[in-house]
Amino acid sequence: MRLKLNLFLLLMISNATLFIKAQQVSTLYFMKDVPVRHFLNPSFQPETDYYLSLPVIGFTQFGIGNNSVTFKDIIFKENGNTVSFLNNLQNEQRFYNTLKSNTLIRTDLQTNLLSFGFRHKSAYWTFSLTEKADGVLNLPKSIFQLSLFGTPNLQNNTFDFSKAESNLSVYTEAALGYSKQINDNWLIGGKLKILLGSANVSNTNNKLLLEAGVDKWTLNGSGNANYSGPIQLNIGTDYQTFSYTTPSSLPGWFTPSGIGAGIDAGFEYRLNKKIKLSAAITDLGFIHWSKNVQNNQYAIDYSFNGIKLFDNSSTIITFQDIYNKLILQNDLTDSIKTEFKKASSTKLTSNQYTTTTTAKINLGFEYEVIKDKISLGLLSFSQIFKNVIAEEITASVNTRPTKWLDATMSYSLINSRFSSIGVGVGIKTGIFHWFIASDYIPFQKKTLNLSDFGSAYPNIRIPVPYNSSSFNVSAGLNLVVDKKQKLFRGLHSSKNKKDCNCEWK
Predict the structure, then answer these.
(1) Is this model's pTM higher than 0.85 or not?
(2) Within 13 Å and on the Cβ side, how many CA atoms surround 162?
(3) Residue-wise pLDDT tens digits, 406-436
(4) Going from the N-terminus, what domains does the chain have, and what CATH number goes with each?
(5) DSSP 49
């Protein structure tokens, strides 16, 4: 029961603060007046001839979420009472059925350091310098299966934990983008990126299987955990000692711990006067880590088929003797620890290693109801982490009632459930363009008090969205400048007609 309560607490805290979703704000995808929209699809060209995105306030994005459950799946009303999913076996099974085969806990923070772009004939060039934090933790469903139901069969209970993997990277991204209008129908674009890694913590399991039965439990597997960053870790033999050394000067904190590269690629295709199709893959890249590297290579081949409780020197006469030996002298736990240590091995190395960034795929459909005024959008958004894909679909109504206002309302299908309303607003005032957008506005909120789970937990109240697994927000302030003549939309001069004889909007 204690194990289940701890699992419950873990999930609650995860919904409140920890499952942070590495993602974009999809509501921005069809907001044409937002200059930094090319972060979602590199083929998108800003509406203005020039733009400058200011540091931090120019474009900052933050999100929290997961791909499996909402707070509503954990605590809910049943027969007029507030209960948790641990209330009975039926609710436990319902909660378990809600989980994806892999629960992705993700984090993303992106803030602008410098970004600008300009139009040249039918092309648009962009440059951006961005600070990013990209984190993913994958929990396979078998972890919850063991925690909730134990080992229901006498033999042959198999749990595969191999995909229990994680990656957290902090890095700076320098990107050069180019978008080109080919003809009346096609707009294509791409970005080349240099990635300067600040720090990374990650782990990978080659194999981690638990075979559990009434006679014997067997845990077999191997993997590695890696670290690279500005702080040097000093780990002693068999982890008996641990210390760290920080950089002695300011440049030491900012010297890259890893270097990598990445690409974005995308297109927009006008099928007819009403319909546009678009697609993009972004953040497809890698970082090779080389500074202050620490690797922990681990292997385990452990079989538990009973415990040798007493040695020959023990005098066991009464029940009190057994209690003293097992509990007071810790023979039970010491025996398990000793056998587990004999069956496992670790090896510390300092080998350079490579991680990948979390790739994202966008597939867009837009139907123009009233030209340049109202359109309907549908966006499929997927993220890929080590062959595990998380998906969601966002539908939106997009309006541009005036030249200075761009507004969108969206509704997202997440975890096969419609649960989130999003809103985006962009306003142009002179040379300034302001925008703010969110995919998951928590209209229903609950407050979680950790002390409700026992005196051992602190009296901390955490607000959590009740009917959504996520929350995100993106906002920015950009300087936008147009040429005195008409913006490029198929200019009528003979010079521009040679370059592109079209009228694109």
Answers:
(1) no
(2) 10
(3) 999 998 876 545 567 899 999 999 999 999 9
(4) 2-293+350-476 (2.40.160)
(5) S
